[in-house]
Design goal:
By secondary structure, the protein is an alpha+beta fold. Helices cover 55% and strands 17% of the residues.
Length: 420
Amino acid sequence: MKENIVLSFQSVWAHKLRSFLTMLGIIIGIASIITIVSAIKGTNEQIKENLIGAGNNAVVVQLYQEEYPMEFSYSEPPAGVRAVDEVTRNTLEQIDGADKASVFRTRGYSEGVFYQNTAFNGSISGIDTHYFDLYDYHILYGKSFTQEDFDSAGKFAVLDTRAASTIFGGKNPIGCVIEIAKEPFTVIGVVEPSNKFEPTINNLNDYYMYADTSAGHIFITDSAWQIVYGFDEPQCVAIRAKTTDDMTRVSQKAGEILTERLIDPFAQENMMLSYRGRDLLEDAQQLQQITTSTSRQLVWIASISLLVGGIGVMNIMLVSVTERTREIGLKKAIGARRRRILGQFLTEAAVLTSIGGILGVAAGLLLAKLISKFMGTPSAISVPAILLATLFSVVIGLVFGLLPAVKASKLNPIDALRRE
């Protein structure tokens, strides 16, 4: 085998231009496939990051009525839904793959929030002591809630940077008093995420899908929530998974635990209540499937050039057999068996396509990087695709080199030596 490989490289080197032209179909085919696969993987990673957010694997588990999440800005809270106690929250943190859990109440659209004559129409949440830690918020200026604020239901508010900008413009909000449902709340701090993620927005569709166009978020303590809204609402739970891939399983398990422990099946009657998490990972996978199914067709189209390249290899190997007829006859005359001749030409075809495959992989990676740089499209290297493409190029050599190799092995030594 070693001798066959050495002879194959010598043959390729002896006919450099002819060998390169023969490999060209393989190079183009492999390069096209690597470029397409890199673009698919890059696009899928971008979709995943845009929907989920880099570094934040948090999922919100909330109360659903049938297939729709309940929004208490517009509907009355259902009876028979218990509050999340500390034992249940600790249980959620013990789920395999879970990291942290936080309990909160929220309104997607704040009601009756004013600063002087300016109305605020962003969201508002009543949070527990774990919320800021779970979402990796840090104090930009001012301070956060103290334990005393939670215990005494203090009328204090913390804003995110967008809410501070929306309500106060460029003014320092610390110490200012905002009105929430006619109750005065003093702003004590402004927060922002430690790892702020900005999705890639390339067009108008991306803007509507990913851009944060809300007016911002106001946070008060969960103990002060009842002062504002005056009744008990079912809580939401934010649970952070250790990895992005754990999000689906963790949110499903958390939903099962909350449904079992908090919902009274006799009080809910036919309301079909359950706790569920919005599976952002599943949303990302649905979009990824669209891009992947479309791109698979492009891969099959690119594979046609591999077929053309394989036919070129077969053609040049048949020419090589014709050129080396006397060599083959001499080897057979001195005792070389058909298997040895067959192995030599199969090895030469495999080496020829392997070199083409390696060059194609390099060209594909370079092309993917260039397209990503100049066109602004994402790309990512797929190691399995590289290994598979290289292996496939060897298979092409073996398949399309088989006919010439069999022809060479069947030559009659006497006829071969007589041929000019």
